[in-house]
């Protein structure tokens, strides 16, 4: 453990720390951010009304639209002079949502990432290959400063330029790698194309996140590279990567860094808390951030939490994998489906590449969906490059049957030739909405 004083702190002590920090944060936003002061006034509350952790429910929620409405710096709680870094996330509507950090925020983030890398199996003596994108996106620089804080040697390769990534992995011999699971999987595919065996690299652990991924993808990454793969979660509005991380000992839920972030899980319809263990929307309140404190941020991410102590000894609340986003959820014939559930089905089918896309289409007056999959190079040769081959027909049936069992719905499956589905250097795009494009599907 990097910092047992916090990571395995007794719950009652932790809650005492949280309430004190929450009060300070609430006062700070009330005094320094007009947006929050107005919201509190509308609800008739003042910082003095917050005296217990339950009282957090009196506070207003914050949403992504609030960041957009206050673009670029309207939610900052310190003067420009104190801000040392600006990040953002791209989102769908042009302008990024902007967040800022003081030097203390950067130091705190570094400490949290150092904890996270240790939880994943990293050490000070490691060479650390960081394939998250550097730039406004928090992934690259977030992991970078934390790895340095730990004392590891960071290779700031960023995303893309896959040939170069492979050369540096072979030459520098890193123990750890970080990147989106889909992009690191692409690195493996490229290695195989080049006649290299990803299992032969020096890599021992991988830190994967920034997009939903499944247990099946974990197995695939672990087997492909012969590593331990852990899930890291975070979002720029709350800080960036490191809000939560799995430990490599248990790989059983992500430890939320509770001394800095308070978590709630709510029903996205009623906005009421859901019982522990039940899926709902994650809501975070920052407890120590200075430049960009955030109150009850609705993430749109669906997961559950548990307070049971983990086998690794950390006492922090743990969140499940993120199942998906409320806005990535597909509703097909009344059934809710997340892309990660479909990923689980696909990775069990032999002969498919670990890359797929779901296309949403309009079929007549009905909304429909098509699942685009890709055959792998070996199978493509075996079936003499014929996508109408009997083997493909059997695979289609297998996928549809498994989907029906797992996701309770099925959709048309479209087979593509190897490498036909676009690869991403960062977050994979799993759902493509073509409903207003005139596309009607096959
Ligand atoms: O993706 C921060 C990050 C960087 C996390 C590197 C992990 C590793 P944003 O660009 O603001 O920040 O996107 C945040 O990405 O609300 C989730 O929907 C999704 N996300 C992040 N981590 C995970 C994960 C970064 N482990 C949004 N599993 C979040 C599933 C994830 N989804």
Automatic annotation (TrEMBL):
InterPro entries the UniProt entry points to: Adenylate-forming_Reductase (IPR051414), AMP-bd_C_sf (IPR045851), AMP-dep_Lig_C (IPR028154), AMP-dep_synth/lig_dom (IPR000873), ANL_N_sf (IPR042099), PA_CoA_lig_proteobact_actino (IPR049623), PA_CoA_ligase (IPR011880)
EC number from the UniProt entry: 6.2.1.30
Pathway noted in the entry: Aromatic compound metabolism; phenylacetate degradation
Pfam families found in the cross-reference section: AMP-binding, AMP-binding_C_2
UniProt domain AMP-dependent ligase C-terminal: residue ranges: 334-435
Superkingdom of the source species: Bacteria
GO biological process: phenylacetate catabolic process
Record bears the keyword Cell membrane: no
Keyword Nucleotide-binding: yes
Keywords: Ligase, Nucleotide-binding
Residue ranges of every copy of the AMP-dependent synthetase/ligase domain listed in the record: 78-285
Catalytic activity as recorded in UniProt: 2-phenylacetate + ATP + CoA = phenylacetyl-CoA + AMP + diphosphate
Molecular-function GO term, any one: nucleotide binding
NCBIfam families: PA_CoA_ligase
Stated role: Catalyzes the activation of phenylacetic acid (PA) to phenylacetyl-CoA (PA-CoA).
Assembly behavior: Monomer.
Family to which the UniProt record says this protein belongs: Belongs to the phenylacetyl-CoA ligase family.
Name of this chain's protein: Phenylacetate-coenzyme A ligase
Species: Bacillus thermotolerans
Organism lineage: Bacteria, Bacillati, Bacillota, Bacilli, Bacillales
């Amino acid at each position: 453990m990097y910092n047992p004083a916090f990571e395995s702190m007794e719950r009652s002590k932790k809650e005492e720390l949280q309430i004190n920090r929450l009060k300070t944060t609430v006062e700070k936003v009330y005094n320094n951010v007009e947006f929050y002061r107005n919201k509190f006034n509308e609800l008739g509350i003042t910082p003095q009304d917050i005296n217990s952790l339950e009282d957090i429910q009196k506070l207003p929620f914050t949403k992504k639209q609030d960041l957009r409405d206050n673009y670029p710096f309207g939610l900052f709680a310190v003067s420009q002079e104190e801000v040392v870094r600006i990040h953002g996330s791209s989102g769908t509507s042009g302008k990024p949502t902007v967040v800022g950090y003081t030097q203390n925020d950067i130091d705190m983030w570094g400490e949290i990432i150092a904890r996270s890398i240790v939880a994943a199996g990293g050490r000070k003596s490691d060479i650390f290959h960081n394939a998250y994108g550097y730039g406004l996106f928090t992934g690259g620089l977030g992991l970078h400063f934390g790895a340095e804080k730990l004392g590891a040697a960071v290779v700031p390769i960023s995303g893309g330029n896959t040939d170069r990534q492979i050369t540096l992995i072979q030459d520098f011999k890193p123990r750890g790698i970080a990147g989106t699971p889909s992009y690191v999987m692409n690195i493996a595919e490229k290695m195989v194309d080049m006649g290299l065996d990803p299992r032969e690299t020096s890599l021992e652990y991988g830190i994967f996140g920034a997009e939903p991924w499944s247990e099946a993808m974990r197995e695939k990454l672990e087997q492909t590279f012969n590593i331990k793969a852990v899930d890291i979660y975070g979002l720029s509005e709350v800080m960036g990567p490191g809000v939560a991380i799995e430990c490599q000992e248990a790989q059983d839920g992500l430890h939320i860094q509770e001394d800095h972030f308070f978590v709630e899980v709510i029903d996205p319809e009623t906005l009421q808390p859901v019982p522990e263990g039940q899926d709902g929307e994650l809501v975070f309140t920052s407890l120590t951030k200075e430049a960009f404190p955030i109150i009850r941020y609705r993430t749109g991410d669906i997961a559950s939490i548990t307070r049971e102590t983990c086998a690794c000894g950390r006492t922090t609340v743990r969140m499940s994998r993120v199942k998906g986003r409320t806005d990535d959820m597909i509703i097909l014939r009344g059934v809710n489906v997340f892309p990660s559930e479909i990923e689980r089905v696909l990775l069990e089918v032999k002969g498919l590449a670990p890359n797929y896309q779901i296309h949403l289409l309009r079929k007549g007056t009905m909304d429909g969906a098509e699942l685009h999959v890709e055959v792998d190079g070996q199978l493509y040769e075996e079936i003499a490059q014929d996508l109408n081959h009997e083997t493909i027909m059997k695979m289609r049936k297998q996928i549809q049957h498994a989907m029906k069992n797992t996701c309770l719905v099925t959709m048309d499956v479209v087979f593509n030739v190897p490498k036909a589905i676009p690869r991403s250097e960062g977050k994979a795009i799993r759902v493509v909405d073509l409903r207003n494009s005139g596309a009607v599907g096959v």
